[in-house]
Design a protein that fits this description.
seven-stranded antiparallel beta sheet; Thrombin, subunit H; 38% strand; 8 helices; alpha+beta; six-stranded antiparallel β-barrel; Pdz3 Domain; elongated; 4 domains
Length: 378
Amino acid sequence: EVPTEGLCSGFIISSDGLILTNAHVVKGASSVRVTLTDHRTYKAKVLGYDTKTDIAVIQIPATNLPTVRLGNPNNLEPGDWVLAIGSPYGFYNTVTAGIVSAKSRSLPDDSMVPFIQTDVAVNPGNSGGPLFDTKGDVVGINSQIFTQTGAFEGLSFAIPINVAERVAKQIIEHGKVEHARLGIAVQTVSQSLATSFGLQTPRGALVAQVEKDSPASKAGLQPGDIILSVNGQPVNDSADLPMMIGLSAPGTKVTLGVWHDHKRQTVIAVLGNFSDNVTLASASPGAHGDHGGLGLVVRPLNANEEQQAGVSHGLLVEGVSGPAEEAGIQPGDILIAVDGKSVNSIDQVRSILKGAGKSVALLIQRGSNRIFVPVQIG
């Protein structure tokens, strides 16, 4: 292989040479060199990194170094001015400015981090550099941009410095980072799903799947439950939950506000370790239409199909039309539950639909994934 070089940024957090930067810029590196603003160069030691939050801590053999002052990103508001310092395309110590566009932004590959979104110009080479507020305090670490060209297009994202501090502390003290988990798959609560579950406003995180023997399972959480709060902190969107749980320590006891069977309950769960995570992955004889306005043709699963799908119950969808087809349900899907109630026969479906409102929430398994699908029947 031909050796390659990469360029990134970072900032000093202690006078004895501790530096914060991004994990993606040091992961896999055979050596890391640090050049300070006064042009002194050192070979750095990588103390550790965490790919889930994209935080890395490195150290250089130097003393009496100037350090940045860390601020509180919770005080930021959309519209506040911020500035970034880094080395875009190798132009050292470049300063760019902009405003905070949004807070607690969730990105598909980094669900544990509540990113600060800004319009500060950030380009290759800025990664790992500090994001300052108007007081001169570091409030974030510039991590990534959203682009279709490879260059800045007005969307940049920074890791809040309080998240980075928490991760860095574990790296410095233990050389690794542990994240907590509940053992569930969640989805966003739409207005249709909220109506189906008797919730006045669409909020919270809808539990679509619960791992066997997971912390969630032991706490009694079930598919169809909606998590509304964690330790009293509201869960406004499903994207909030992975951040709240993942940044906690394994073994932490959390109090969950849960919407279950049309009423609010309190559930206590002891979080597990993320490293123990399990990846949540023409009509034939016996098929029947549900006759409930859903537009489904279903039949019970046989023993072999249950074993292949890894389920203990459910109905195989063999035909779709009308509301079910409009909602995106497909032949081959497995209907697990209706409005949070498990189904194993067409009579059970009919019984539940009799007391349903204008929409119902169908728990569908497709492959190894489960998701609630709202279907309008009124």
